[in-house]
């Protein structure tokens, strides 16, 4: 039985799993692809280990403003699985509400699985709200159809990164 609050996206990347894993776990590589289409991501803090904290600034290309994000890692099992809590943040790394909606969940549990597929790597990403109110869950469910497009921008940048190195 599927969870109506779970967003799942699977994607095949044309690179070996160790290479794809490095793109998700090395801060200098994350800065090159992580974030919505058209943003420049700057890593402010990166302690990528269970209990560690990642904080980044995302500047919109068209002068449309700045977003801050924070990840708190729960689990890292190289090169197979990463689990983190994902939130909007302020410049100091504190959790804040979404700049787009007052009823957006403050924390999302992100699980990313990396599976070898011949010479390529299949990545399965899932998002589930954590401790969300009924109103936050409604807003999240309504937005699920837009998540594919949001992650597609990141994945296009990741494809370019993987093709370069």
TrEMBL record:
Annotated transmembrane regions: none
Top-rank taxon: Bacteria
Domain Activator of Hsp90 ATPase homologue 1/2-like C-terminal: 14-162
Leader peptide range in chain numbering: none
Family membership noted in the UniProt record: Belongs to the AHA1 family.
UniProt xrefs under Gene3D superfamilies: 3.30.530.20
UniProt xrefs under InterPro entries: ASHA1/2-like_C (IPR013538), START-like_dom_sf (IPR023393)
Name of the featured protein: Activator of Hsp90 ATPase 1 family protein
SUPFAM superfamilies: Bet v1-like
């Amino acid at each position: 039985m599927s969870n109506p609050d779970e967003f799942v996206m699977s994607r095949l990347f044309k690179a070996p799993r160790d290479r794809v894993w490095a793109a998700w776990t090395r801060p200098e590589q994350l800065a090159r692809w992580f974030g919505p289409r058209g943003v420049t991501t700057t890593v402010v803090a990166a302690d990528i280990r269970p209990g560690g904290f990642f904080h980044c600034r995302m500047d919109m290309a068209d002068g449309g403003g700045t977003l801050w994000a924070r990840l708190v890692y729960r689990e890292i099992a190289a090169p197979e699985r990463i689990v983190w809590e994902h939130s909007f943040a302020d410049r100091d790394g504190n959790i804040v509400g979404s700049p787009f909606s007052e009823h957006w969940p403050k924390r999302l549990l992100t699980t990313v699985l990396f599976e070898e597929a011949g010479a390529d790597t299949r990545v399965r990403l899932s998002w589930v709200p954590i401790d969300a109110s009924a109103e936050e869950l409604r807003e999240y469910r309504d937005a699920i159809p837009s998540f594919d497009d949001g992650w597609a921008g990141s994945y296009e940048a990741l494809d370019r990164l993987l093709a370069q190195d």
